[in-house]
TrEMBL record:
GO terms for cellular component: microprocessor complex; mitochondrial large ribosomal subunit. Keywords: Mitochondrion, Ribonucleoprotein, Ribosomal protein, RNA-binding, Transit peptide. It comes from Drosophila sechellia (Fruit fly). This is Large ribosomal subunit protein mL44. One of its GO terms (biological process) is RNA processing. One of its GO terms (molecular function) is ribonuclease III activity. Belongs to the ribonuclease III family. Mitochondrion-specific ribosomal protein mL44 subfamily. The gene is Dsec\GM10632.
């Protein structure tokens, strides 16, 4: 009977709660939670900053599954053996071979493949495609500027930035952790080489276009390549392209003989204005005008037509030899 009475009481309370317009929920936190969290925070602060741990050291880590997921995230088809080799550095392979030798493993099982040849192959493919892409997209820029832009795209900092955002940090097998910028850049080159071996050279070209060449998106090319001697370069370009002799002319000035002096200089060739610039003196204004004129001639202004990152260059236009 007591059980029935308690059940009837619970049902009555449930009906009252359903009929009430608002129901207040309470959070019940045990009294031991707050001092425990404070003690844990105190211990963490006492230990100081800890070195990051390898993700591969966790129990649930599965290298094969992570490699498979890496390829699917990129939408590419890799041979797992090639991709595994792409993330294995030579120093790591040598350390593993020494460890196996100390354990008494036979010499036939000591060899561990590494990514040295894939890195070299990927570097060759990436440079060849980047140079072909720049020549196609920036036909008016001289070879000096194309080489400077290509060096920016293929620099260790740029490649490490791309590699880290693709999620290669925890996949790289190296003797150091976290991997250095050089290791990240080499792993990206090795991935390009592994992709060429697995899916063909065309897929490797598309990979370079999608992940490396796109670093030029919304990038001011003047920040990437700034001529050291713009006036001399402008005179050389005008002579080569038969634009006429470049002549700087003073267009305006204000605040002479003051700390806020400003000059405007324009550069003409065959009575055509090539560019203009401002500066605190005539020399600075002339150099700025020369840079503006070079941007106009090379078609590298901010309002130029955006890069076409959907273009597919024919393999024969990419010089791999």
């Amino acid at each position: 009977m007591s059980f029935l009475r308690s059940a009837v009481g619970l049902l009555a309370r449930a009906k009252l709660l359903e009929g009430s317009p608002t129901v207040q929920t309470r959070r019940h936190i045990k009294r031991w939670v707050s001092p425990t969290l404070r003690e844990l925070a105190h211990r963490q602060k006492k230990l100081g900053p800890q070195k990051p741990e390898r993700r591969a050291g966790f129990v649930e880590w599965n290298q094969r599954s992570e490699l498979f997921a890496f390829g699917k995230r990129l939408g590419e088809s890799f041979e797992l053996s090639e991709l595994q080799r792409a993330f294995t550095e030579k120093s790591f392979a040598e350390r593993e071979e020494n460890r196996r030798r100390q354990l008494g493993i036979e010499e036939s099982d000591l060899q561990m493949p590494h990514n040295s040849d894939l890195v070299e192959k990927g570097q060759h493919i990436a440079r060849a495609y980047v140079e072909a892409f720049l020549q196609h997209q920036l036909p008016k820029v001289p070879n000096e500027g194309l080489q400077a832009i290509a060096s920016f795209l293929l620099s260790t900092e740029t490649l490490a930035h791309v590699s880290s955002h693709l999620g290669t940090k925890d996949l790289i097998q190296s003797t150091e952790y976290p991997p250095s910028a050089e290791s990240l850049a080499k792993s990206l080159h090795a991935v390009i080489g592994a992709l060429a071996s697995s899916s063909g050279i065309e897929r490797a070209f598309i990979f370079v276009r999608d992940f490396i060449c796109t670093q030029l998106n919304q990038k001011d090319l003047l920040d990437v390549w700034t001529p050291q001697k713009p006036i001399q370069l402008l005179e050389k370009i005008c002579q080569e392209r038969k634009l006429g002799e470049a002549e700087p002319r003073l267009l305006g000035d204000c605040g002479k003989n003051t700390v806020l002096a400003a000059y405007q200089v324009g550069i003409y060739a065959n009575r055509q204005l090539l560019g203009k610039g401002f500066g605190e003196d005539v020399k600075t204004a002339t150099e700025t005008a020369a840079l503006d004129a070079l941007q106009s001639i090379f078609d590298t202004r901010d309002n130029r037509r955006p890069f076409d990152f959907a273009i597919q260059l024919e393999p024969k236009t990419v010089r791999l030899g």
